[in-house]
Specification:
One of its GO terms (molecular function) is DNA-binding transcription factor activity. Keywords: DNA-binding, Transcription, Transcription regulation. There is one protein chain. This protein is of the alpha/beta class. The protein has 3 domains: about 70 residues, Winged helix-like DNA-binding domain superfamily/Winged helix DNA-binding domain (Arc Repressor Mutant, subunit A, Orthogonal Bundle), CATH 1.10.10; about 120 residues, D-Maltodextrin-Binding Protein, domain 2 (3-Layer(aba) Sandwich), CATH 3.40.190.10; about 100 residues, Periplasmic binding protein-like II (D-Maltodextrin-Binding Protein, domain 2, 3-Layer(aba) Sandwich), CATH 3.40.190. It is about 40% helix and about 20% strand. Strands 3, 4, 5, 6, 7, 8, 9, 10 and 11 form a 9-stranded mixed β-sheet that branches. The longest helix is centred in the middle third of the chain and has 18 residues. The radius of gyration is 23 Å and the shape is elongated. The chain starts with 11 loop residues before the first helix and ends with a helix.
């Protein structure tokens, strides 16, 4: 029977390098986080794998991802960064919460809801560094690269703790000039033949957003993966946009179309990576996001 590694053979500092790669998913980004060259990160990871006698990372389509063994080790090693932050705080004579929290969110929600919430966290807790990454893509199955993530629908298969953050509405909007040049739209059947502004069907990776088929008779006239481009195209008269209500409602140059008949409700889920090292900081950011949506519920779900 092969003996396992001895504790003195494993460097705690090398574990910090593994934690950094687990956080950001890429060697270059981890190197920037640690203030070293990416070759140093690679060398430290090789040394750690040799000391433990196990492969900890695999290269995936979106960067480096933890193996089963790597994930188990990261979960055990996660408190190391928190301990270091506490030591730094103690040495400086303070007890403020410290740490880096990366939040992933869809671009619309991230820009209009997450950004102001994170700005307030930063003002109240200057020891917390914040990173906001916007994307509508599903979470990685291994759940690395973020501490908190807001997604449309549940992160199927991802090894994270997920909870409902809020529901939000998608409704139809059009430019007044677009509507004035066409017959009045008074019922669903009147939508037939109109151009739809929405996501690009072939590039849609979130099944909950596959809603174009629900609007029978409409054809996709302008597709974009960017919700702000959808908004501006609708405002410019490219068609009738199926837009986030928190972007379209009350927006200059837009008129609601059949708001009672077309009102899709989708969930924003909030996921937490279980091996996130900055536990206290993550809890503060999580509470800030929940407070933000609670105070602005009327924008997410405007009355019909």
């Amino acid at each position: 029977m092969t003996a396992g590694p001895e504790p003195h053979e494993v460097s705690a500092d090398d574990l910090r390098y593994l934690l950094a790669v687990a956080r950001v998913g890429r060697l270059v980004a981890a190197a920037a986080l640690l203030g070293v060259d990416h070759t140093t990160v690679r060398r430290r990871l090789d040394r750690l794998e040799a000391a433990l006698g196990a492969r900890l990372l695999d290269r995936g389509a979106d960067g480096w991802q933890l193996t089963e063994t790597g994930r188990a080790i990261v979960e055990k090693a996660a408190p190391l960064e928190g301990i270091v932050e506490q030591v730094v705080a103690a040495a400086s004579g303070g007890d403020a919460v410290r740490g880096t929290v990366r939040v992933a969110a869809p671009e619309g929600f991230g820009s209009l809801f997450a950004a102001p919430a994170l700005a307030r966290v930063r003002a109240e807790h200057p020891g917390i560094a914040l990173e906001l990454v916007t994307s509508t893509r599903p979470l990685s199955l291994r759940g690395s690269g973020f501490d908190l993530a807001v997604t449309v629908g549940s992160p199927a298969g991802a090894r994270v703790r997920a909870e409902l953050l809020t529901e939000y509405a998608l409704r139809l909007y059009a430019a007044p000039s677009y509507l004035a040049a066409r017959p009045a739209i008074r019922r669903l059947a009147d939508l037939e033949g109109h151009d739809l502004v929405f996501y690009v069907d072939a590039l849609l990776t979130v099944r909950e957003l596959d809603l174009a088929a629900e609007l029978e008779g409409m054809r996709l006239g302008f597709g974009s993966t960017n919700v702000f481009a959808q908004l501006e195209a609708t405002r410019a008269g490219a068609g009738i946009g199926l837009l986030h209500a928190f972007m379209g409602e009350g927006a200059a140059g837009l008129t609601p179309v059949l708001p009672r008949e077309v009102d899709f409700r989708l969930p924003f889920m909030l996921s937490t990576r279980p091996d996130s090292p900055a536990v206290d900081a993550v809890a503060i950011v999580r509470d800030a996001l929940r407070a933000e949506v609670a105070s602005r519920r009327g924008e997410l779900l405007p009355p019909r």
